[in-house]
Each structure stands twice: as structure tokens, then as C-alpha cells.
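User: quick one, sequence for these C-alpha cells?
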């Protein structure tokens, strides 16, 4: 039998426990209430403050910023061009062990970002266009995926006997056709006379083979609302995609230079169209421009602040690298063999280089490609 003094102790302890639980409940309710009150203003921050925050973000943080809420997404959309304009290009590379991600490396600042993509290891990369990666699936279908927004398209199976053959020969661009009310991919096979186009809702590609042409195709590019195809003998054809099919317009460009033929690339900027006789083991890149006033090829020895960025895949472009503190008036060439980005002057001299990989081994399924954030939201209307 308990002594009365012990009963008083137990009663005191029980009351203290109840009092403590009630205090803890009040504290929890207070914290929950304060949390709710604190979370409300984030979506109503002043626009000037949001802009100030945006301009201090790194590239991946900017992508996350636009996913917070509606007002933040609106601010990110409004500042997108200003934010992306000074960003240097990334080199897209995939590790041998990666299955669902691709790494983007800023070789000028030695930083790396990773984005998740489904089943990358089962696909081959053909290049990039308008911010979309062009991937070849196991059934030869063309899968376009935007690594930033996650948007994707699927196009019909490309013709060919093997994926390796298609990946080495296919050069493609993504364009928007008001005539066809949607996106279209226009593609050629290098060293053939075949051109094709198709949309994501088409059952098959519309293919044309121009047997009467004197030389095979080398590359194609979008420039000022039209698609241009370059042949191995430096002839240029303007392409129009209509409901009735593809229409070809030959262009007579005089003073064609003596070139290697098989290693030609067609690269465009907003105002200029270039042909680059690409590097080989024995030859460095040489740059020529189409002078549309005189319709002649002109050897380029001065690009001003601009530079040309080349890779084996269809991801080349022209940009102003002085905006991010790099050298202009040169050619940047990705070389998978040596894991380097070599820099060449316009007179064919090697003037520098930047290492792309440090102790990593890229898979043979995805060679290096250039990816410029400034162009990742562009849309080429034909």
C-alpha cells in the first residue's frame, strides 16, 4: 500500500507530464502556424527582387527557380534571354556507366551539370537542333528530347541497314513549318543524294533521291528562314518543304575552293553562312563564307569577336566567346579521340586547347556535342 506522500509525488509527476504535453502541442501548433505564414510571401516577392536573384544563379539553379511557383516561372521566362545570353556553351558527354543521365560540362569554367534522361545507354546521338538532342532508338526511330524542359518528340524510323551507319551519315535539323502546322525534321545522308523530311505524327519519312545531281550531299543548315544543303563539290541548294513534298532550288555560287569534300560542314549565324573544310589527321579547318551579294565563296581570315564551334555530330554553331571571356576569331573543334577541344586560328594554326575529360571514359554511343544555352529555346521557322 502506497504512502500518501508517494501518491502526491505520482500525482505531481502526472500533472507535469500533462502540462508538458500541452506545452509541446502549443509549440508544434505555433511552429506550424508560423511555417504557413512564412511560406505565403515567397510567391508574392517583388519582381525587381526576383530579377536580382535570377542574375546571381548558376545555370541548373535557374532551371529549378522556374519550377517553384507561377510567379517565379513567369519571372524566369521574362529574363530567360538575358540570363542565357552570356552563358558559355556546354560539351555534352555521357559516361560509360550512365544509364539515365547526360553530363554537360562547361570547359571554360571547369564546371559540370547533370540532367536525367530515360534510357540514354540504349540510344545513339545524332546531334542537336533548337535545343533538342537527336537520339536514335534501337528500332531506328528518331527521338528528340529537350534536356532543359523535358519536352520530347518521336519521329518515324530512319531508313538504313544499321544504327552505326545511320549515326555516322545522318545530318538533320529541326524546323517549324507553318505550312505543315508543326515541327518537321529535314535530314540528309552524307555521301548520298538522298534527302528526307517527316513529322512526329507521320507514319514514314518522305524521301527523295536526286540521281541527276553531279555530287553527293555533305551537310545542311538552317539560315534566315530556309534550309540550305551543301554538296561535296561546294554547290549549294535551297530546300523548301511543302505539303506536296520537298522542292529543290540550285544556287550558283562562284569561285568554289578546292576542298576535301567528305569533311565539309555548313554552319550558320544570324547573318552569315559558312562552309568549314573540317579537320582531318593531315588537314586543319579552313573557313569560307557565302557572299550573297556577289554569290561567291570567300575565304575567311577574320571573324571579329565571333568563333565557330565544331564537332563530329550536327551540333556546330557560331557564337561570340568574348562574352564569357574566351578567345574569338578562331575555330573550336571537339576531338573525341584525345578528349580535347582544340583551338585553331583561321589560317590553320593550332593555337591552344582545353581538356574535356579528366580521368573519365566517354561511351562510343555518345560522342561529344556542343550545346549552347542561348540557342536552347530558339525555333527555326521556315
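Assistant:
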Amino acid at each position: 500500500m502506497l504512502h500518501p506522500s508517494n501518491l502526491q509525488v505520482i500525482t505531481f509527476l502526472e500533472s507535469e507530464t500533462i502540462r508538458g504535453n500541452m506545452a509541446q502541442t502549443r509549440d508544434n501548433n505555433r511552429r506550424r502556424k508560423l511555417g504557413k505564414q512564412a511560406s505565403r510571401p515567397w510567391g508574392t516577392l517583388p519582381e525587381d527582387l526576383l530579377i536580382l536573384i535570377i542574375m546571381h544563379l548558376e545555370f541548373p539553379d535557374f532551371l529549378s527557380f522556374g519550377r517553384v511557383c507561377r510567379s517565379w516561372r513567369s519571372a524566369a521566362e521574362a529574363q530567360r534571354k538575358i540570363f542565357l545570353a552570356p552563358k558559355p556553351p556546354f560539351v555534352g558527354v555521357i559516361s560509360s556507366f550512365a544509364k539515365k543521365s547526360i553530363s554537360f560540362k562547361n570547359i571554360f569554367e571547369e564546371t559540370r551539370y547533370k540532367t536525367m534522361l530515360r534510357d540514354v545507354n540504349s540510344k545513339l546521338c545524332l546531334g542537336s537542333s533548337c535545343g533538342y538532342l537527336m537520339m536514335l532508338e534501337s528500332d531506328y526511330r528518331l527521338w528528340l528530347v529537350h534536356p532543359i524542359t523535358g519536352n520530347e518528340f518521336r519521329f518515324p524510323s530512319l531508313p538504313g541497314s544499321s544504327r552505326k551507319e545511320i549515326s555516322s551519315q545522318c545530318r538533320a535539323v529541326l524546323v517549324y513549318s507553318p505550312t505543315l502546322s508543326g515541327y518537321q525534321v529535314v535530314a540528309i545522308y552524307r555521301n548520298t543524294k538522298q534527302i528526307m523530311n517527316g513529322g512526329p505524327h507521320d507514319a514514314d519519312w518522305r524521301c527523295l533521291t536526286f540521281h541527276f545531281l553531279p555530287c553527293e550531299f555533305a551537310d545542311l543548315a538552317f539560315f534566315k528562314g530556309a534550309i540550305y544543303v551543301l554538296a561535296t563539290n561546294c554547290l549549294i541548294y535551297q530546300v523548301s518543304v511543302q505539303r506536296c513534298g520537298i522542292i529543290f532550288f540550285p544556287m550558283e555560287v562562284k569561285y568554289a575552293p578546292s576542298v576535301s569534300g567528305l569533311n565539309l560542314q555548313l554552319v550558320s549565324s544570324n547573318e552569315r553562312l559558312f562552309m568549314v573544310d573540317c579537320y582531318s589527321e593531315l588537314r586543319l579547318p579552313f573557313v569560307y563564307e557565302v557572299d550573297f551579294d556577289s554569290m561567291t565563296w570567300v575565304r575567311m581570315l577574320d571573324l571579329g569577336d565571333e568563333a565557330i564551334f565544331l564537332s563530329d555530330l550536327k551540333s556546330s554553331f557560331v557564337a561570340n566567346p568574348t562574352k564569357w571571356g574566351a578567345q574569338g576569331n578562331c575555330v573550336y573543334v571537339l576531338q573525341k579521340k584525345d578528349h580535347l577541344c582544340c583551338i585553331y586560328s583561321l589560317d590553320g594554326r593550332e593555337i591552344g586547347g582545353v581538356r574535356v575529360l579528366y580521368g573519365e571514359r566517354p561511351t562510343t554511343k555518345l560522342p561529344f556535342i556542343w550545346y549552347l544555352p542561348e540557342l536552347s529555346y530558339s525555333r527555326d521557322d521556315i
